Amino acid sequence: MIAIIGLLIGVLLGLLLNINIPQSLSPYLSVAILACLDSVFGAVRATLSNNFKADIFISGFFGNAALAAVLAYLGDKLGIPIYIAAVIVFGGRIFDNFAVVRRLLIERIKSRNRGD
Amino acid sequence: MKKVTSQIFVAIVCAILGFLLAHQFKMLNEKNKDTVGNQNLDIMAEIDALNKEKEELLKVNSELLAELKKLEETAAAEGAMEAEIKKQLDNTRMQLGLIDVKGPGITITITPKTNIFGGNSTDTTRNISESEIVHIVNSLRYVRAEAISVNDYRLTPQTGIKDSGGWIWIGNEKINPKDKIVIKAIGEKESLSYAANFVGVLDYGALQNYYSEVKESDEIIIKKTTQTIRSEFISPVE
């Protein structure tokens, strides 16, 4: 719940505030966002599995985002699209995490209906 | 207490994610709006150019009609001169690109290489510009190409080639450097083919990012120019 509230506040701030991030950083930001989304999905999965740890989530969130952005930047400079590696890995992990989240939720609903 | 702190951190992190998402959406939307704005400017410039050209065409047309009437009167008066005048007139028209022409020559097809693994789709350094087209045309003219067209736009002695607004303008017509470009030339096909395949012609500059194909043909048709030939300032020396 607190995560959703935080997300909504962030969206509102993003829409209302005019903070200038240079347009040249836009491609790196997109890859970083993907890495952040991966961390969030991982966090949801961990919460449902009852092994969520805030420090791991936060370090993963910033660490993955920074690594993805750096990889994209490095690839741009070297002339090889390394960012594709980040897109494939994080994209794949998002789907994996979503699959686990889906299963856990369905199991939970089923067990609730059974009256466990 | 520890749980509350971790929840606050989670909220902050999610807020950062939300902010980044919203900011990126906003930024991309603004970029799209800018692109649409530029396209509108391009269209307005094109309409202006077309209106101007229409006026010129009307003027030239009336002048040509008057000239034709005069020539017909001369031909009627001196019957023997008729054939010669007609021949000269046709020849001049052919050279100026005012009529459709045909003959042996070559067709050069330039197709952009697909950029599946290219890092940046907005990279414009990969695209050809005026200099590559001018280079090819110059190479063909050097081996005496008698008529040249780029994407079916006939080059006349008064046709300029220039980059503007992401397009390559061939006189008043524009071509997209990201699309297939076809250059036709009429002349001695062996010489033209040799010139086109010469080292440094079809691999000049950004042409290295394009596939090039040179095809010889016995009959190439080049359509007349849509540009008007002006002689507003020139006059023969007495």
Largest contact between protein chains?
Answer: A-B, 39 and 29 residues
Q: Find the count of extended strands of chain A (DSSP E, 2+ residues).
A: 0
Strand ordering within the main sheet of chain B: 3-2-7-1-8
Helical fraction of chain A: over 70%
Shape of chain A: globular
Low-confidence stretches of chain B: none
**Beta-strand content estimate of chain A:** under 5%
Number of domains of chain B: 2
Structural class of chain B: alpha+beta
Number of domain modules of chain A: 1
CATH class of the largest domain in chain B: Alpha Beta
Can you give a write-up of this model?
- Chain A: Its main location: membrane.
- Chain A: This is Small basic protein.
- Chain A: The chain crosses the membrane at residues 28-44, 56-74, 80-105.
- Chain A: It is found in: Cell membrane.
- The complex is a heterodimer of chains A (116) and B (238).
- Helix content of chain A is 82%, strand content 0%.
- Chain A is built from four helices and no strands.
- Chain A has helices spanning 2-16, 26-48, 54-78, 83-114.
- Chain A is globular, with a radius of gyration of 17 Å.
- Chain B folds into two domains: 1-77; 100-222, 2-Layer Sandwich (Alpha-Beta Plaits), CATH 3.30.70.
- Chain B has helices spanning 2-77, 81-96, 130-142, 189-197, and strands at residues 101-112, 147-150, 153-154, 161-164, 167-170, 173-175, 181-186, 210-222.
- In chain B, a hairpin with a 2-residue loop joins strand 2 and strand 3.
- The longest helix of chain B has 76 residues, at 2-77.
- The interface between A and B is medium-sized, with 39 and 29 residues.
